[in-house]
Amino acid sequence: MDCRRLRDRRRNVWARIAVARYEHVSSRRVAPTYRNGCPAQTCGGRQSQRGRHRLLPVPRCRLERDRGRIRSWRCSMREGLSRNLKSIFAGEEAAIVTDDWRLAEWLAVRDIPAMTFDEIGAGDIEVPKRALAVPLDWDRVPSRQALRDTWSATSVLWLPLASFSSDLDTAKYSVEMFSEVDVSRSVAMNRRVITRLLMVHEEITMTGPDTALKVRLPDTLHAVGRTRVALLDDEYSTLGNYFEVGMSPTDMAGRIDASMSVSEVVRVDSVLVAKHREMRRESASSFWAAADVAEALRKVCPFQVTIEDNRIVDGFGEWAKAIHTLSGPQYHYALTEVAIGTGALPLGRVEWGLNSVLNEGATGIHIGVGNGLNGVHFDFISTEARLDGI
Question: Crocagin biosynthetic protein CgnE/B domain spans which residues (predicted)?
Answer without folding.
Answer: 92-387
